Amino acid sequence: MTGRNNVQSLFGVQDVPTDVQIRNFLNPAGAKEVAPLIQGVGDAL
């Protein structure tokens, strides 16, 4: 990889999952389970 993405640049994360890996991880969870997590991230920003 020639460039760095925001997760690597801002947070120092080395192994960033792909969008497919994230989808596969979250798909078994229902929207009601995931919504509070997403809201928490939004609130933290």
Number of strands: 0
Helix content: 55-70%
- Which structural class do the helices and strands define? mainly alpha
The major sheet is characterized as: none
Q: Give the uncertain stretches in residue-range form.
A: none
Q: Write down the overall mean pLDDT.
A: 84
- Distance between the terminal alpha carbons, to the nearest Å? 28 Å
Number of helices: 3
Q: Shape, please?
A: flat
Strand content: under 5%
Number of domains: 1
- Element order: H for helix, E for strand: HHH
Radius of gyration, CA atoms, in whole angstroms: 13 Å
Task: Give your account of this protein's structure.
This protein is 62% helix and 0% strand. With 45 residues, the protein is mainly α. It is flat, with a radius of gyration of 13 Å. The relative contact order is 0.09. The model has no long low-confidence stretch (mean pLDDT 84).
Task: Put the structure in a nutshell.
The protein has 45 residues and is mainly alpha-helical.
Per-chain topology:
Elements: H1 6-11, H2 19-26, H3 31-44
Name a few traits of the molecule:
45 residues, single chain, 3 helices, mainly alpha
